[in-house]
Amino acid sequence: MAESTSAGEKNSSGSGTLKTLIRSFSLRKRRENEVAAADGTASNTKPASSDTQKSPTAEDGFRRTNWRRSFKRQSIQEIFKSVPEHDATTSTVMEKETTKDCDFTYTILPTPLSVMEISNLIETAALKEAYLNILSLQKQVQCEQEALGGEASPVKLANKEKDLNLLYNSLRDKLSKIVCQSCTQPSCNKELLVQVAGIIQDKEKREKDEEKMGERKGEEKREGDMGGVGGWRDVWKTAIQQGVKETLGKIHLNSYEQNVSCIGVHLELLGKKIVELLEMVKEEILNFYPPSFPVFETYASSCHEFVGEHLKELLGKTTELKDYNAMLDFAINRYHSEMILSSPSLQPEMKEQKFLTLSGDLLGKIKKAYCDCLQDTLHGSLDNLINAEQEEVWKKKVTPKRIKDEIFLISEVYTHVCEIIRKYSENCAKIDKNLERMAVCKCMEALKHFPKRFEEEFSKQSRSLLGSDLLDCCLWAEYHVAYINSFSFLKEHMEGYREKCPGQVEELVTEVDGLIDRLRQALLEQFRVEIEPYLGGLMTKNWLNTDTDFNELVNRIETYSGYSKSMRRPPAQSFANDVHYHVVKGYISELLRNKYSCKGKKNDIAAAKINEQWTELKQLFCEMGSTLDWLHSLGYQISKIIEQEHEKAIKNVLTPLVENYPDISKKQLSAILYFRDSGFKFERSPAIQCFTELKRKIDNSKTENTGAHTFFSDIK
Q: Which of 42, 88, 395, 692 could form a disulfide bond with 209, CB atoms 3.0-4.6 angstroms apart?
């Protein structure tokens, strides 16, 4: 049993030794055939033994040196000439092989140089020689791999495979560098670019052939040294992108201290450089490549990609409104105009590049940043307007100007605001209609806060004018009229933007109307304060004898009537009505205070005076522009009641008063009778009894008197 086992081991050992010898013989035979093919000898020459094999002679070295020199002297045309046959099949024996693609032909060398020598060739840009040696080395590696079958590669072969990959990577980097540098010096790299194109085409052809052969044999796709088909072309495109980035990235960006329009100038230079670069590509670089290379398209798309990334970079640095404006003008108008992409010198090649449009997301971000900056800038501009008004007008007590035949008082505040908004709107409209709409909306939002800010500062500064100095009081009133007019003009002007942003304009109009109303009410309140002392002197014994207080009242009305005439409608109309109503209310209120009674039949004198003064007041308010015509009859109707000699006759003139002013109360009628000095107790007065009956009739038919005005109910 032991002997049998021993015999089996011997047979196994002998079989393994035999296989090793056969494999060694095959490898040696293959190497000899390769050498024979290089020297022109027959491939079936008997191999020399290790004992009898001679070292290379001087003659062999001289022959190889001459061959290399003759190879280096070959021209580009000889290297890339066509050959009649092409065999891309893989052989187990190293042999002379040629490959043709388009106009490029390469001949694989029988024996490669050393890795160091090939690396030096790559370093010195001897691309064709380096590439042929790499192909030869690759062929050698493939033969050795096939000889091994499915067994693992020995260390020496593994190192050779590693060297091959390193050489391919080195060649790839060199090609990338040459293509990258061609953006700045294409003429210097002319011959090299031709070789680059030939190498890429040849490599792609080989990879495709290997892939097809693998599919026919049913083998799995093996990753190549450059990542499979298309890898070399991708490297070429990446190199162009890098070259374009380096070329365009050299354009200097000045600081704000050097140039306040630095972004605008920078983008203008960028546009010119893009045109210059693409013109050079069209006129020079395009001629160095075969038609299968999308040269112009790749350079154009690389420029476009750089522009998009560069605008993103500038967006992060920009803080000034003019710079955002320059970016938008460049991106929306100049970039696609004849200044850059549509330049006549780039046609017709550029017309085919319809994909060169900046992303909507990028443009949206720039527009938003512009509008946000615009809003902040406008806030600052409006604050500056308020400060300027404070320093140049209020503190210096400058009288407001008049416009339109010297009628309307006006402030320049509104003109400045309108000019700012108009400028922003027009500038944006030149760039993009959508941008104009966005900008106007932002302006309206910013302007919405302006009325209250203005009112706060104006109230602080104008309060000091309301003193004993009459001129200061007049100036205070003129300021109010001027700002009522100014903000009325502003509201009308902003209405022109309602179509673009109705919601924002409506909010602004509400704020402006509020300010105008408050300014008008402040003016009316000051009028009330000024006439209060003179109203108190009416319907007294002194009033019956003199007209001093009434004349002062008339003077104040005339003064404020002048303010009303300096005011634009509709605020002027509202102000005139307010003054009219307040004076009538104050005048009648004094009569109802029971502070004087016309004793000794002075009622006819009082009635005549009321009638006379009422006529004068009516004329003043008509000239002022009041539309409260329903107040005109009140004084006359009361004076008729007062002038009646007998109280029983009052009921004959009472009806018009009660019908026109149905809110008059019994107490108020009693006050009128007291002023007349009625001789009856009020409860038994025929006038009161008639009044009670009239009120009952009116109350029963309220629906028929819905048009009647209320007045007496407003008197406390």
A: 88
Domains, the chain, ordered by start: 1-46 (no CATH), 73-224 (no CATH), 251-354 (no CATH), 363-521 (1.10.357.50), 537-714 (1.10.357)
Q: Is cis: bond before 154, omega within 30 of 0?
A: no
Reading the block at residue 332, the tokens are: 């929306």
CB 129 within 8 A of CB 74: no
Q: What confidence tier does 22 reach under pLDDT thresholds 50, 70, 90?
A: very low
Angle between helices 115-123 and 155-181 (to 10 degrees): 10
What's the pLDDT tens digit per position in 632-682?
989 999 988 888 877 777 878 888 888 888 888 888 888 888 888 755 555
How many whole angstroms from its chain centre is CA 695? Answer: 69
Lowest mean pLDDT, pick from 64-68, 197-201, 297-301 = 64-68
CA 300 to chain centre: 26
- Token digits of residue 523: 């003016």
Evaluate whether 99 touches 202 at the Cβ level (below 8 Å): yes
* Closest by CA position to 567, among listed 495, 472, 478: 478
Strand partners, 101: 104
Q: Is the pLDDT of residue 54 over 70?
A: no
Query: What is the separation of C-alpha 340 from the centre of its chain, rounded to a whole number of angstroms?
Result: 22
pTM score: 0.70
In total, the chain counts a number of residues equal to 716
**Beta strand pairing call for 104-108 and 401-403:** unpaired
pLDDT band at 256; cut points 50, 70, 90: very low
Look at residue 59 and tell me whether its pLDDT is greater than 90: no
Please report, for residues 262, 374, 398, the alpha-carbon distance to residue 322 in angstroms, rounded to integers and kept in the order given.
Answer: 10, 9, 34
Angle between helices 603-624 and 571-591 (to 10 degrees): 170
Determine the average pLDDT of the residues in 47-59. 39
Position 615, amino acid: T
Assess whether pLDDT exceeds 50 at residue 90.
no
H-only helix segments in 448-602: 450-462, 470-494, 502-536, 541-545, 548-565, 571-591
Q: Looking at residue 83, what is its pLDDT?
A: 34
- The residues, ordered by sequence, that sit 6+ positions from 211 with a Cβ below 8 Å of its Cβ are 221, 228, 229
Both structure tokens of 73: 């002297």
pLDDT single digits (tens) 290-303: 988 999 999 999 99
Q: Which residues contact 240 (CB under 8 A, 6 or more apart)?
A: 179, 180, 183, 298, 299, 302
Does residue 533 have a cis peptide bond before it, meaning omega lies within 30 degrees of 0? no
401 strand-pairing partners: 410
Amino acid letter, 384: N
d(CA 13, CA 19): 10
| Closest alpha carbon to 243 in 188, 197, 179 | 179
Q: Which helix (H) or strand (E) holds 328?
A: helix 321-328
- DSSP assignment of 207-249: HHHHHHHHHHHTPPPPP-TTSSTTHHHHHHHHHHHHHHHHHHH
Q: What is the DSSP letter of 154?
A: P
How many CA atoms, within 13 angstroms, populate the side-chain half-sphere of residue 59? 2
Q: What was the pLDDT predicted at 6?
A: 41
Residue 352: the pLDDT is 65
Cα gap 186→181, rounded to integer Å: 8
State both tokens at 671: 């006050």
Q: How many CB atoms lie within 10 A of CB 559?
A: 15
Band (21; pLDDT cuts 50, 70, 90): very low
Is the confidence at residue 366, as pLDDT, over 80? yes
What span, in angstroms and rounded, lies between the C-alpha atoms of 9 and 327?
85
pLDDT band at 214 (very low <50, low <70, confident <90, very high): low
Phi, psi values for residue 596, rounded to 5°: -155, 145
